[in-house]
Amino acid sequence: PPAARVRNLTKTYGLGQALVTALDDVTLDIAAGEFSAVMGPSGSGKSTLMHCCAALDTADTGSVFIGEQDLTKLKDKGLTRLRRDEIGFVFQSFNLVPTLTAEENITLPMSIAGRRPDREWYDNVIATVGLGDRLKHKPNELSGGQQQRVAVARALASRPRIVFADEPTGNLDSRSGAEVLELLRRSVDDHGQTVVMVTHDPVAAAYTDRVVFLADGRVVDELRDPTREQVL
Ligand code: ADP
Ligand code: ADP
């Protein structure tokens, strides 16, 4: 089955006259072992879609399946288990725990899940994010770019089946961005993970297998094996 299936997902924010339709009847399949990008103007619903797919938010109507599991049918316990064991998430605002070091933040989901990392993969993730001695520092001692790399490492370290990343290279210079994108690419190619990434960057989109374009909460276009020029 697809890694994720979105069916007729609709979500509206606000009340009365201030009603905003963030998602408007979105239907989408995310194939297992594929690296996808979600692109579209600011406010087109990209973050809302990612949050609904990752069980961090709920839609008004429609359904989301992660593998065989229908998120709308799961209770809190099931959702917690799913988020803990099967999903990695890179938040746009990082969401690091301020009292923990970078390294403790990275290993936190695994500690909670009681899982040991595959040593080789973990070392590869740590090496690629390139934090060096900064691993022992707390988030407020790190630059935005460094915090972003911690957030990416945290999502990938336990090798969850599916990773949702909300602009994972948004705060990185082009070289660090390329390293993170190659890490995401490798997690798909070498480890069969599924990655869905929101991005505004055509260079980032060119790393993916497929781009889905959103506008006004709807899927308006789709492109396979995108080149940078095609998404400019
Ligand atoms: P994108 O990620 O593409 O920028 P979002 O999913 O963040 O889009 O937002 C889609 C629409 O929903 C926007 O019009 C946004 O203003 C609105 N929206 C998002 N989150 C909230 C919220 N918590 N409360 C009210 N409106 C929201
Ligand atoms: P990056 O390119 O990763 O965003 P910057 O150029 O912003 O890094 O930061 C350069 C150096 O300054 C880094 O070694 C970083 O650790 C340090 N630094 C940046 N912001 C802070 C901060 N708020 N507190 C302490 N050190 C910081």
TrEMBL record:
Q: Fetch the InterPro entries from UniProt.
A: AAA+_ATPase, ABC_transporter-like_ATP-bd, ABC_transporter-like_CS, ABC_transpr_LolD-like, MacB-like_ATP-bd, P-loop_NTPase
Question: Could you tell me which residue ranges the ABC transporter domain spans?
Answer: 4-232
- Membrane-crossing ranges are none
Which keywords label this protein? ATP-binding, Nucleotide-binding, Transport
- In Pfam terms, one family for this protein is ABC_tran
Q: Which GO-annotated molecular functions does the record name?
A: ATP binding
Name of the protein this chain belongs to = ABC transporter ATP-binding protein
